[in-house]
Amino acid sequence: MDIVYIIMGLVLVLVGAHILTEGAAAVAEKFRISEFVIGLTIVAVGTSMPEFVVSSVAAIQGSSDMAIGNVVGSNIFNVFLILGLCALVSPLPFTRNNIRFDIPLTFLASVALFITALDTMFGWGDINRIGRWEGIVMFLSYIALIIWSVRTSKQDEQEVAAEPRMKMWIAVLAIVGGLAALVIGSRLFVDGASAVARSLGVSDALIAITLVACGTSLPELASSLVSVAKGQTGMALGNVLGSNLFNILFILGGCSTITPLTLGDIDIIDISMVILSAVIPFIFAFTFKGRQIDRKEGAVMVAIYIGYIAWLISKI
User: Fold this and answer.
1) Cα–Cα dist 5/14, whole Å
2) Which of 68, 239, 289, 305 has the greatest count of CB atoms below 10 A from its CB?
3) Relative orientation angle of helices 132-152 and 103-117, to the nearest 10 degrees
4) End-to-end CA distance of the chain
5) Which residues pair with 261 in a beta bridge?
């Protein structure tokens, strides 16, 4: 049955990603909102719901390893594998705002995670954990960021279609239905994959960073690849950056507000990989052809992810 759950989950994720992308793009056209901002908000928050559900339940149940590992693994997966694969399909161009604001904000959020989580490294405590007040600040920072992003966004004339692709009520139903399929599909995949992993005697921390993180990030993977295949690269980039911001500031911030989160077996290498995932897009924005992630850089990103997973497996 675990294998059946995995297959069913993948099918639902792929279908949900297609429906969600169409609905979100229609909303963008209707309200003259840029694809990037739609990706940063509606798509990013929606596709991050599996991470939110898994981490919230884990935090409430006292499984801090699972709650933090899910976010850490998801952010690493989002950048290195998802953006890497998307760039292999089609180069991902950056806008001026991406370089000036969006990528730096992702980096700052990653640094905030590094500073707040590694208490022993900075001499702030005997246990590595994210405290309640730190969580409140992170959570409120995300709310402020979204309000600022929506208010300051400007629609590029090239991104506005002459005629809307679907009626608004259909677009809303598509978004809701797509999100539902993504959440259910991801949950089936995670449950099946986790059951298989535990039967092999793998720790919760490793399961969270690898299988659970990959499973809960399937919506981002599917929706981003679908967006790129349809030429909506801005939505794909906004989806990944928005999801990473949501994961750190909203999910970990919200969960640690409910109960402080202890890192457990998650170490400085794992958190440092989150920092690297925020730095790599900025570096690639100024290499080779410039202001984009091209196919060569996409291949490098995928290779980094494979190397990291191989290193994790070697520690078992």
Assistant:
1) 14
2) 239
3) 180
4) 26
5) 130
Look at 151-160, 174-183, 303-312 and tell me which has the smallest mean pLDDT.
151-160
Max Cα distance, the chain (Å): 60
Residue 129 confidence (pLDDT) = 87
Tens of pLDDT, residue by residue over 44-60, are 666 676 777 777 777 87
Q: Tell me the C-alpha distance between 120 and 203, whole Å.
A: 23
Closest to 238 measured CA to CA, from 86, 73, 15, 26:
86
List, for residues 245-254, the tens digit of each pLDDT value: 888 998 899 8
**CATH of the domain spanning 37-154+203-314, picked from 1.20.1530.20, 2.170.150.70, 3.20.20.480, 1.20.1420.30:** 1.20.1420.30
Task: Give the C-alpha separation, 311 to 303, whole Å.
Answer: 12
Q: Percent of the chain beyond pLDDT 90?
A: 20
User: CA 216, CA 289: separation in Å to the nearest integer?
Assistant: 33
Distance from C-alpha of 27 to C-alpha of 34, rounded to nearest angstrom: 10
Two tokens, residue 314: 């070697």
* Pairwise CA distance, residues 142 & 245, whole Å: 7
Q: Determine the pLDDT at residue 160.
A: 44
Distance CA 230, CA 278 (A): 25
pTM listed for this prediction = 0.77
Q: Report the amino acid identity of residue 218.
A: L
279, 58 contact by CB (below 8 A)? no
DSSP 61-108: TT-HHHHHHHHHHHHHIIIIIIIHHHHHHS-EEPPHHIIIIIHHHHHH
Nearest to 74 by CA among 98, 58, 96: 58
For residue 36, give the nearest of 166, 170, 155 by alpha carbon: 155
Written as one letter, the residue type at 65 is D
Element (H, E) at 182: helix 168-199
The three-state secondary structure class of 44 is helix
